[in-house]
Amino acid sequence: MAAATTSFGTACCLRRVTHAFALSHLRTNANLSFQTTLTSHLLSLSTSSDSSASKAVQASKGEVDVLLKGVGEKSVANEVKHVLEMARRASLKREILHTNFLTPPVLKESMQVLETLADVKALVQGGYPQAERCRISVGHPDELTSDPDVISALSVTGNFQFEPCSHGDFLGSILGTGIAREKLGDIILQGEQGAQIIVVPELVEFLMIALDKVRNVPVTCTKIPLISLDYEPPRTKSFKTIEASLRVDAVASAGFKISRSKLVDMISNGDVRINWIPITTKGTTIKSGDLVSVSGMGRLKIGEVNTTKKGKFAVELIRYL
User: Fold this and answer.
1) Are the CB atoms for 46 and 54 separated by under 8 Å?
2) Which pTM value belongs to this model?
3) CB 219 within 8 A of CB 156
4) Where is the RNA-binding S4 domain positioned along the sequence (predicted)?
5) From CA 133, how far away is CA 206, in angstroms rounded?
6) Cα end-to-end distance, the chain, whole Å
7) Phi and psi for 301 in degrees, rounded to 5?
8) What is the rounded CA–CA span in Å between residue 197 and residue 230?
9) Would you give the DSSP letter of residue 26?
């Protein structure tokens, strides 16, 4: 009995120490570290007697500003700027650097800009083809020759038969261990069995110890190979609507089968997003390829848009089921 008590006490102590260590290291914002490193690099160059180096820094900063002109959303532009600065650093120093998990709009804008740079190669990894949150690895083309090992997967299992848990339940429990959101990729729900989660490799052992419950369900975390991720392509339903305008309140209300007034209220509450960016104006217009999401109702992709003989718009809507 004494031996069992000692063993239990040792395990609890180990969990507390591991948790404390992770909390002290994992809350660091990667963007801050990128900016700090870049600032140090610029300071070292500016104090150098080599004037050509200073001119190179000014040219690089100017180029970043030019590249960011096409990014409209300020918060997205700021994150893309950090990615660009990191890419430049990686190329100049002939090293490979990795971002945290990026949101879809930041990922999209970052890759569009990075693809225009001849001296930078970028690779995207999210764990599976439909992954939304992904990491970007950047480096000089001569250095980045294969996919780096920068993501890992965990299976979170438990008996969820009598207490089903949502994506938000798993996310809340994971973040409750103290890790930062940007260290976590997608969460793939597995019904009664639990979920599979994608994380940065350095958090695997920590989560295997710290994550022991989702809501009220005890869980076990096990590392799994990425090839074992059990995902299904999204199911969709396509249909068309005829609208007088391409305003989001008109098109989305038809797509989600709700009243226009209700959708306007949801827009005012910040519950409607276009391409993952919240909107607050009902007159915002949509275009082919846009993704409209409404909290609690799912997502809607805008397909082909054509003008009718009467001057209205025939819009193809693809509803994610």
Assistant:
1) yes
2) 0.66
3) yes
4) 246-308
5) 21
6) 54
7) -105, 140
8) 11
9) H
